[in-house]
Amino acid sequence: MNYTTQIKSRRIAMGWTQSELADRCGVTLRTIQRIEKGEVQPSLYTKTRLMEVLQIEVGDFESSLEITENESLKSKPLTVMQTFFALLHSKKFLWIASSLILIITSVWKGSGLFSEPVFSRSSPPKGFEIQTINCGSNTECDIELTRKDDNGTILWQKTYGGSSYDKAAGVISVPGAGFLILGSTSSFGNGNYDILLIRTDEMGEVIWQKTYGGFFNEYGESISLDENKS
Fold it and tell me: What pLDDT digit, counting tens, does each position of 88-99 carry?
């Protein structure tokens, strides 16, 4: 039995919906859906929570994970750590360990372990407000960009995101008109959470949007132009 079937069968056996399992694990509904479909492998934190909530033995879960050759080569040391942490069976210790790994992965730039962050801090351009809205639950939010005139009157207001969690981080004006919006998303991308970058025209209409990230959680924090204004 592979891990996707194992998770789904255990959830059904306990009489839970995907939404109920997501709430109990503290992850997004979309993450549970993607894991059960085999679209993404669970991160260290998600894997640990699934084992605890669904009462799955460490050995059973480890043996059912399907790892590609490339992922195995890149993740071998981490797999050893995951097994070690899981065997300790300490919720507090596991939470600290997984949080530390997520913090480290969120500030990586390329292959440099302690290189500069991908984005440096900046303030929104004058007359603009960016915020996270529509948070009906911990797993559902959207990004909102508002443009106002000098008197504070709203000129236009746009909402961005998908069916899951989308969080605003920052916005900047770009040369040649338009804006770049930075955030984090679990609605799109490869992992549970990925960095979200949206390019819009001067009226806030989406020109393109891209996600950045891989197996673990990556978060956009802030954004600014470089010295070349690009």
Answer: 444 444 444 444
